[in-house]
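Work Package 4 report. The design task specified in the project plan requires that, given a folded chain encoded as structure tokens, an amino acid be chosen for each position. We show below one input record used in the internal validation round.
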């Protein structure tokens, strides 16, 4: 929901003879987005994100990699936010290599969800003000509760492994316009 101050800061047009800044309708975005050069858009978006580092929430990613057989799975929590120590080289931005925030492992298959939840619950794992992304495996009530309780937000896909949650989300999206006007 954008207030008038945010709309003004974005440079949106004002309604004629008023102080109300208008938000383009859904159709405007639907028509505009396919016309964009995706590579140029990504370049501009990355530049903007870099300029606003420290203002925007941290971005974290949770993922596991199965090594098969008896080796088990390694689960990593990685900070995907662009770091200030990234260096410029030949007019290109280079991301600095940074170690994972936290890692854990499981033996065998089928334990990634429980191990990931344990990793997130560790006292040294700071989720405050962060947006955590993960795959549909982690769309579990206990995991999401842990993220929110530790001050984070999440962006997690829903699939058929959570049919009630997926149906609820689809109904919410179907009944809600993509832009909120106030």
């Amino acid at each position: 929901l954008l207030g008038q101050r945010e709309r003004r800061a974005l440079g949106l047009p004002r309604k004629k003879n008023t102080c109300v800044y208008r938000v383009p309708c859904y159709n405007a975005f639907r028509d505009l987005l396919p016309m964009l050069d995706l590579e140029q858009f990504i370049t501009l978006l990355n530049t903007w994100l870099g300029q606003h580092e420290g203002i925007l929430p941290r971005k974290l990613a949770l993922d596991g990699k199965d090594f098969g057989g008896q080796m088990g799975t390694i689960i990593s929590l990685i900070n995907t936010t662009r770091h200030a120590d990234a260096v410029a080289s030949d007019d290109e931005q280079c991301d600095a290599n940074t170690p994972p925030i936290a890692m854990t492992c499981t033996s065998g298959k089928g334990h990634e969800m429980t191990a990931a939840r344990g990793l997130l619950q560790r006292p040294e794992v700071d989720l405050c003000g962060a947006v955590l992304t993960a795959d549909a495996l982690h769309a579990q009530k206990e995991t999401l509760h842990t993220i929110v309780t530790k001050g984070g937000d999440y962006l997690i896909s829903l699939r058929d492994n959570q049919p009630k949650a997926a149906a609820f989300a689809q109904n919410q999206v179907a009944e809600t316009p993509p832009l909120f006007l106030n």
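Residues 38-51 form the longest helix (14 residues). Validation will be extended to a larger panel in the next phase.
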